[in-house]
Amino acid sequence: MKINNFNSSEKILQYTNKLDYFFNAHKTLIVTELDLTNKCNHRCPGCCGNNENNAELSKKQVESVVENLKSMDNKGVILSGGGEPTCSPHFEYAIKLLKNAGQNIGLNSHGMNLKENLNEIIAENLEYFRISLDAGSPEMYLKIHGMKESHFSKTLQNIENFAKTKQRLGSKISFGVGFLTSSITQNDMESFVKLVKDRGADFAQFRPFTGDTLDIIPKLDELKAKYEDEHFKIVASYQKYKEMVGLTQNSERGYDKCHGMFFSTVISADFKVWACLHYRQSDKHFLGDLREQSLEEIWRGARIKEVYNNIDCSKCPILCRNDSFNRTLDKLSLDITNKEFL
């Protein structure tokens, strides 16, 4: 079982062939976030999905997406949202198609809809599975997910059930539970870790609410010293937390182009492609409609270059998904004095 170190600034450099494509505007795509549906049975007040409409990929559209990803030599697919992936009637079918197409699959879910048959399919086919609990108490769960104490208890039971299924099947899937940090949630961090560890998850993951700059590294270090062992890890987007000190929306990013949009994309539940997961349904970030073009045609077309040249990175969320490897990729275009003298 291998747990993600969230070191995307290093990961991007492992794909030398994709970097070569980057200079030639072709098959750069490495990871795709796929929204099977915009439907969700949670009521998160701060939801960043698109469940204001009920768009949902049809079975035929799922098949088309998988073929498109395969033709682009895409490496990883994150089933996310949008809405809640397990609400899609084609959730199991999508997993089987993606697996057969050689895609590595990850799943982000609220975890409330799990049944034993789903547990087995997830455990046998996915690389990682993260349940977004984001609370260490029913009171916080109500604030963050808009759901009752009974739903909190059910999700905790589902976490325990999945851990048992994983163990029974001898699955190597990396299974963890996520927590979004902010000034509102910080006091629940330790109780969250206890709940997750006691129910058999491999790891507890901390990541910031988009735009929130609360520094939790001292608390993380304390929790790691207290609760980590050979079977349980506490992980976090450390590169984001370390960069947060003194950071504001107007802070200098160190780059002015979103190079990452060529390597990481989003296919939404209405069968459209977007430059950024933070801007699903934004006209400025719209790359193409899969009803009209293939993914490869979109990547070769004029629109993707237009979006790339027009995105104003200074207006993007601080520490966005692409930030760390944008910083890395930007170094490829630096004007370096005496670069021949290594």
TrEMBL record:
<keyword id="KW-0479">Metal-binding</keyword>
<dbReference type="GO" id="GO:0003824">
    <property type="term" value="F:catalytic activity"/>
</dbReference>
<dbReference type="GO" id="GO:0051536">
    <property type="term" value="F:iron-sulfur cluster binding"/>
</dbReference>
<keyword id="KW-0411">Iron-sulfur</keyword>
<keyword id="KW-0408">Iron</keyword>
<feature type="domain" description="Radical SAM core">
    <location>
        <begin position="26"/>
        <end position="247"/>
    </location>
</feature>
<dbReference type="InterPro" id="IPR050377">
    <property type="entry name" value="Radical_SAM_PqqE_MftC-like"/>
</dbReference>
<dbReference type="Pfam" id="PF13186">
    <property type="entry name" value="SPASM"/>
</dbReference>
<dbReference type="InterPro" id="IPR023885">
    <property type="entry name" value="4Fe4S-binding_SPASM_dom"/>
</dbReference>
<protein>
    <submittedName>
        <fullName>Radical SAM protein</fullName>
    </submittedName>
</protein>
<dbReference type="Pfam" id="PF04055">
    <property type="entry name" value="Radical_SAM"/>
</dbReference>
<keyword id="KW-0949">S-adenosyl-L-methionine</keyword>
<dbReference type="InterPro" id="IPR013785">
    <property type="entry name" value="Aldolase_TIM"/>
</dbReference>
<dbReference type="GO" id="GO:0046872">
    <property type="term" value="F:metal ion binding"/>
</dbReference>
<dbReference type="InterPro" id="IPR007197">
    <property type="entry name" value="rSAM"/>
</dbReference>
<dbReference type="InterPro" id="IPR058240">
    <property type="entry name" value="rSAM_sf"/>
</dbReference>
